[in-house]
Write a structure and sequence with these properties.
binds zinc ion, 1 helix, alpha+beta, about 55 residues
Amino acid sequence: MPVTDPVQRKIAQYHLLYVKICRKCNAKNAYTAKKCRNCRSKNLRPKKRETKNK
Ligand SMILES: [Zn+2]
């Protein structure tokens, strides 16, 4: 289902792209997270961000 409202689209993109992935268990964490919420590892990486202009 495409999001048409530009404000909602921005919010959706923020939550889809601004996440940190645990290198140990691949769990998604908040971008502000210092450690993984699943395994408490500090081995987090930010998710790759690619701008899609659609
Ligand atoms: Zn983890």
